[in-house]
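Lecture notes, unit on protein representations.

Consider one protein chain, 287 amino acids long.
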Amino acid sequence: MLRRHIINILLAISCLALVALIYFLDNQEQPASHQQQFQPLKKSAVQYIKLQRSGEHDIELIRQQGEWRVSSPIQWPANPARVHALLNLIGENIHGSFKLEETSAQDFGLQSPVVTLSLNQQTILYGDKSPLNQYRYIQANTTVYLLNDSSFYSAAASLERYLSLKLFHPPHNKIDRISMPGVELFKHQGAWKSNLEQPHSMDSLVSFSQYWENSSAVDISLQAPPYTAAGEILIYLSGEKQPTIFTLYLTDEGMILHRKASQLYYHFSAHQRQQLLNLTGQPLPRD
């Protein structure tokens, strides 16, 4: 009789353990397609972005005719890849959430957030990372969410990272004339000509001008480089009365172009330097 009771007790314990296991598995993190997502507003509805970070420039961006532009502290086309990476915060999987009144903002780094992000009128605060799983505490309204940290690197990026790397932006990127040390390249009756004694094919001149029209730097900075200028390059765009003037700096890594009407310094690789200066023959020596 006693043995039967023991067996029944063990069976009951086994059943309870099985029920507990099923409940535990059922409440584990669901696949991404079934998880609730962070949706403080629709991504397509965002027209204005402001980033506030301690020790960094506040950055403001606006969307005009479908294109993002930095509007403060300078005005310049934005780097679309960086903006898209930031907006990927919208739609991130939620790994946990709780109401802020249930605890203290200071406990999660939200009293002095590392980033304050404004999307239209919606304010989003970036706090600390959870020591348990490295998810980021992010506050929207009165709710704190645990999200992947992928958007934080864009939210914390410097102003330079938000500036477009392109020298010229369509549709205002069609070139009529290029003037650089020792080289004049110009259109005459719709055909490209040069002042070089060595003849160049029409295709090579067209390719050269198109490379300038579509060129993008590998990096951009706001600080003057510690090099001596090697000359100036003047680019005459279609429909513009005045040329865009660049100061040329030659470096071991490639070259830097300073757009004289701004504080922007475009950094190019050694390969790009050859593509952008190849009609000069031998590369210009570095001073």
